[in-house]
């Protein structure tokens, strides 16, 4: 059962833990929330509905994992990576669905450092991390350009892609004889006329 403050089974925090939580909370971006909500609603269709405005509404909308699973399934061609989401009031089932979304997002290409932890969403500990994961997912969908992305491409930046080059053996051998400019050059350099400190005094 969720406490009034939005976190499950957790009282208010004080002192240092309060300062840490305030700092985490300050990273949450209301403008990004609007972009993410609009993208998810377009991507998944009317079945996911819309959340109440604000951080708590955003958390409540995503907390059971159903919207997240619908989102990740909508980005794949063919069958989705996660079986159908089930609405459940049971905490462990909701957390399991969030974990399934995270696994599928990682397989889709979201890197570990962009991923939130299940408790970040379920307990509302770090909703900015949830935003970061969803933004990374959106960026990947725009970058992959598989025809499954249904939002505005300007909402997310396109990730850099590999620029693979193939060189012949002759080109590789020729490259070994080139001294890169970062290594410097000693052409025309000598120690003539240079002195370091005073000459040695012999008495």
TrEMBL record:
One of its GO terms (biological process) is actin filament organization. SMART domains: CH (SM00033). One of its GO terms (cellular component) is actin cytoskeleton. Pfam families: Calponin (PF00402), CH (PF00307). GO terms for molecular function: actin filament binding. PROSITE patterns: CALPONIN_1, CALPONIN_2, CH. Residues 1-20, 183-203 are annotated as: Disordered. Signal peptide: none annotated. It comes from the Eukaryota. Residues 30-141 form the Calponin-homology (CH) domain. Residues 183-193 have a biased composition (Polar residues). Belongs to the calponin family. This is Transgelin. It comes from Seriola lalandi dorsalis. The lineage of its organism: Eukaryota, Metazoa, Chordata, Craniata, Vertebrata.
């Amino acid at each position: 059962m969720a406490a009034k403050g939005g976190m499950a089974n957790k009282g208010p925090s004080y002192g240092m833990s309060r300062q840490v939580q305030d700092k985490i909370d300050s990273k949450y971006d209301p403008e990004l929330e609007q972009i993410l909500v609009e993208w998810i609603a377009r991507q998944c269709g009317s079945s996911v509905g819309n959340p109440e405005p604000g951080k708590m509404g955003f958390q409540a909308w995503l907390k059971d994992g159903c919207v997240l699973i619908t989102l990740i399934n909508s980005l794949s061609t063919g069958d989705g990576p996660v079986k159908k989401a089930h609405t459940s009031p049971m905490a462990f089932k909701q957390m399991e669905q969030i974990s399934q979304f995270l696994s599928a997002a990682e397989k889709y290409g979201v890197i570990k450092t962009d991923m939130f932890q299940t408790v970040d969403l379920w307990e509302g500990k770090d909703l900015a991390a949830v935003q970061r994961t969803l933004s990374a997912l959106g960026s990947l969908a725009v970058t992959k350009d598989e025809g499954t992305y249904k939002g505005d491409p300007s909402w997310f930046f396109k990730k850099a892609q590999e620029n693979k080059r193939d060189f012949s053996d002759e080109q590789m051998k020729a490259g070994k004889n080139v001294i890169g400019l970062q290594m410097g050059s000693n052409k025309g350099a000598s120690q003539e006329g240079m002195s370091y400190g005073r000459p040695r005094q012999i008495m």
